[in-house]
Design brief:
The structure is a single chain. This protein is an alpha+beta fold and 186 residues long. It folds into 2 domains: 2-73, Arc Repressor Mutant, subunit A (Orthogonal Bundle); 89-174, Arc Repressor Mutant, subunit A (Orthogonal Bundle). It contains 8 helices and 5 strands. The strands form 2 sheets. The chain has a 3-stranded antiparallel beta sheet with strand order 3-5-4. Strands 1-2 form a two-stranded antiparallel ribbon. Strand 4 and strand 5 form a beta hairpin.
Length: 186
């Protein structure tokens, strides 16, 4: 089983995006030129997950974006945040984040709908989000002019560490009790 685990670790380590269990199985089946049972892959993934939970490792196996990837543990957040701060030139602007949130919550959505919500032109923000791969074209609307519909991509899911769009926080999650007016009902 260690032999299989080592191959799976190598695949996950080298993958630029989270690797789905079916992709791992397919790759191993082709490599070994024999059917690799999915239960063996699942079992190996569990063992790998347990292995990297140990303190001696600075990273762990996480299921994110519908697949598996190695991510650093929270204990190393300070050093990583310093590195990321130094690389902050590539961060999204406030306008791009606003546009991205509209797309995430209203998808599929046209550029006109985004502009009506934000009250400003969204061309630059949408193009930037497309360039970064966080947003993708989902088709065309069945309205006059057939405008392009935009939605979030798999990379968006990976970037925010979610497996499904339903895992996004709901607006009620943002309401703070100190912002409420009146007395509490008991």
């Amino acid at each position: 089983m260690d032999f299989l685990q080592n191959h799976i670790e190598a695949l996950i380590f080298c993958a630029p995006i989270p690797l789905k269990e079916s992709e791992i199985t397919s790759c191993l089946t082709e490599m070994f030129e024999a059917n690799v049972p999915s239960k063996d892959v699942s079992s190996a993934l569990l063992s790998i997950g347990e292995k990297f939970k140990q303190e001696q490792f600075s990273f762990e196996l996480i299921k994110s974006g519908g697949g598996y990837q190695f991510l650093t543990k929270p204990a190393y957040q300070a050093s990583i945040s310093i590195m990321l701060k130094q690389q902050s030139k590539r961060r999204l602007s406030t306008s791009a984040l606003e546009t991205l949130s509209i797309i995430a919550y209203k998808q599929p959505v046209t550029k006109l709908e985004m502009e009506q919500i934000r009250g400003v032109n969204c061309d630059y923000s949408v193009n930037r989000l497309l360039d970064k791969g966080l947003v993708e074209i989902k088709g065309k609307a069945e309205t006059i002019g057939r405008p392009i519909l935009y939605g979030t991509s798999g990379e968006f899911m990976d970037y925010f560490g979610i497996n499904d769009i339903t895992e996004l926080p709901t607006p009620k999650d943002f309401v703070l009790p100190e912002n409420e007016i009146g007395e509490e009902k008991e």
